[in-house]
Write a structure and sequence with these properties.
The chain is mostly beta strands. The protein has two domains: 6-19 and 41-98 and 105-325, Glycosyl hydrolase domain, family 43 (Tachylectin-2, Chain A); 352-547, Jelly Rolls. Helix content is 5%, strand content 44%. It contains three helices and 40 strands. The strands form nine sheets. Strands 26, 28, 29, 31, 36, 37, 38 and 40 form an eight-stranded antiparallel beta sheet that branches. The chain has a six-stranded antiparallel beta sheet with strand order 30-39-32-33-34-35, with no helix packed on it. A hairpin with a 7-residue loop joins strand 18 and strand 19. The chain binds (Z)-L-Arabinonhydroximo-1,4-lactone. Residues 51-52, 67, 111-112, 163-164, 213-214, 229, 233, 276-277, 293, 519 line the site of (Z)-L-Arabinonhydroximo-1,4-lactone. (Z)-L-Arabinonhydroximo-1,4-lactone (6LW) binds at residues 51-52, 67, 111-112, 163-164, 213-214, 229, 233, 276-277, 293, 519.
């Protein structure tokens, strides 16, 4: 079902392509740390919904970008010295003038980006699916002198019909390759105007699996290597490679393809599945690495929650000059056997957020579509969220909603908030959010008698249900807590910040990507909504995200 829905989604998108052929961001920095091992590392290296990684290197510094879909700001940028520990240093698309997300629903918007460094400049190229749906040129380039930004406004490239564009420079020429549905296409771009020179040509169909996509071209020892993903971004995802002496082909498949797949006998029961969408990088010491996405089947029964996460593996070149991933063509969560680059730790993440002394939300906080910035203000050491009639459930619209990713399987989220000027129909709270069709909410709601209640509710597709209501007749702050394991989200509330009353727990299974579909992953955030004319304002005091015990994998095929 899930496979079908994603497949159908891509099909619809690509058929539309075929037809088309004829806020100021915030200052606080956020850091994500992979688990440190004396030797080696643990996958994912960037946990949580950070898919479709692309990486470039400048000296000893690596920069990586991920896709972001309907969320704003778009395309998070990370910095690392060792490919293991990454710090988010900004977002490429952090001004509404760079990205129109107004028309898209869940998993629309910004698809896979590529980041490259060329002669002193950074380039990021990606696809805005919303623009393509509108019949426009969806692929665009932005540039920057500093990967932390500011990045330029976009230059769109008409004639590039497809997704997952990538750039390659040689001898003053600039090439673009991309996934054009059933094949990989190549064209030359004018290096200044980024417009197409001549015609696009098909250079490789892949190895016969569905969805040849995510192409990148590299040159090594006289060969052009064309690295792609095939099989679709679900369980059958894999990495294939071909090469040619000529950039335009013909390309010859590696006889040992796929060079990465978890569909092997030894890896099919690993918790890490769906590995694909890769990018290769050579470190300054000459070693080769591959970044790729994978998802963790943590719910069991082949269901995952945290989205597709950024992973890493070492690469060597065999005697026939083909790359070998992790020595065996499959990967693990535990990569402690790997000899790494000298490890350089990044500062700890700022998981506790308050708004004292002018503090604001950091780079890692995201909104759906293009947010209305006036609905998010700071006053009296609080973040104020203005309720609007646009609901969390509404597709293609921007509700008052701001969230961060779930980055641990086990974690606890707590917040303190109050709701001011609430009437019946007004609602503000903390949500466990996959998308507008799937979320679990704990909220303060206004009542007809001018009072307030606490409400636990869910939306799962067409199912909407209020699971519990608790009388709550004070307008002081309430604390909401969510205790998270691989199997459940358990909700509780407190009025003194110490004693929490349980409200109920809900299964993670039903919020999983396999149940709801889509390309994103779980978020925790606040929302504020009401009926027409609402004057309600939610006031947030603080938010605390605490990582729990590291997840201990259960077999992907439970034996019970
Ligand atoms: C992306 C494609 C893919 O454009 O899924 O996993 C699409 N790979 O390459 C959305 O992430």
């Amino acid at each position: 079902m899930y496979r079908l829905s994603l497949y159908t989604m891509k099909k619809v998108l690509l058929s539309l392509l075929a037809i088309a052929m004829t806020m100021p961001m915030f200052s606080q920095s956020n850091v994500i740390n992979a688990q440190i091992t004396e030797k080696g590392f643990q996958n994912p290296v960037i946990p949580g919904y950070y898919p479709d990684p692309s990486v470039c290197r400048v000296g000893d510094d690596f920069y990586l970008v991920c896709s972001s879909f309907q969320f704003f700001p778009g395309v998070p940028v990370f910095h690392s010295k060792d490919l293991i520990h990454w710090e988010q240093i900004g977002n490429v698309l952090d001004r509404p003038s760079q990205v129109d997300l107004s028309r898209g629903g869940a998993s629309s918007g910004i698809f896979a980006p590529t980041i490259r460094y060329h002669e002193g400049k950074f380039y990021m190229i990606t696809t805005n699916i919303n623009v393509m749906f509108g019949g426009g040129a969806g692929n665009f380039i932005v540039t920057a002198d500093n990967p932390a930004g500011p990045w330029s406004d976009p230059v769109f490239i008409p004639g590039v019909m497809g997704i997952d564009p990538s750039l390659y420079w040689e001898d003053g020429k600039l090439y673009i390759c991309w996934s054009a549905m059933n094949n990989i296409a190549l064209a030359e771009l004018d290096p200044q105007s980024f417009q197409m020179v001549g015609k696009a040509r098909s250079i490789w169909d892949g190895d016969g699996d569905s969805s040849p996509e995510g192409p990148h071209i590299y040159k090594k020892d006289g060969y052009y290597y064309l690295l792609i993903a095939e099989g679709g971004t679900e369980m059958g995802h894999k990495v294939n490679i071909a090469r040619s002496r000529n950039i335009e082909g013909p390309y010859t498949s590696n006889p040992s393809n796929p060079i990465l797949t978890q569909k092997r006998r030894d890896s099919v029961s690993s918790v890490l599945q769906g590995t694909g969408h890769p990018d290769l990088i050579q470190a300054a010491d000459g070693s080769w690495w591959i970044v790729y996405l994978g998802f963790r089947d943590t719910v069991g029964k082949m269901h995952h929650l945290l989205g597709r996460e950024t992973c890493l593996a070492p690469v060597r070149w065999d005697d026939e000059a083909w790359p070998v991933v992790n020595g065996k063509g499959w990967v693990d969560i535990d990569m402690s056997h790997v000899k790494t680059l000298p490890q350089v730790l990044m500062p700890q993440a700022t998981n506790y957020v308050d708004f004292k002394q002018g503090k604001k939300l950091g780079f890692e906080w995201i909104y759906t579509n293009n947010p209305v910035q006036e609905n998010y203000t700071y006053a009296n050491n609080q973040l104020l969220l203005k309720a609007t009639p646009i609901k969390l459930d509404d597709p293609n619209r921007t509700p008052t909603f701001v969230a961060r990713r779930q980055t641990d399987v086990n974690c606890t989220v707590t917040t303190s908030m109050s709701l001011m000027d609430a009437k019946s129909g007004d609602r503000a709270g903390l949500t466990v959010y996959m998308d507008n069709k799937g979320h679990y909410d704990v909220a303060i709601v206004g009542t007809a008698d001018g009072g307030q209640e606490i409400e636990l509710s869910y939306r799962l597709g067409e199912l909407k249900h209020i699971a519990k209501t608790v009388k709550f007749n004070t307008k002081r702050a309430v604390q909401f807590k969510i205790d998270v394991t691989n199997s459940h989200y358990a909700f509780s509330y407190s009025t003194d910040g110490k004693t929490f009353q349980p409200l109920g727990k809900m299964d993670s299974y039903f919020l999983s990507t396999e149940t709801l579909g889509g390309f994103t992953g779980m978020l925790f955030g606040w929302f504020a909504e009401g009926d027409k004319g609402t004057k309600a304002v939610a006031a947030i005091d603080w938010f605390d995200y605490k990582s729990g015990a590291p997840y201990v994998a259960v077999p992907a095929y439970p034996t019970e």
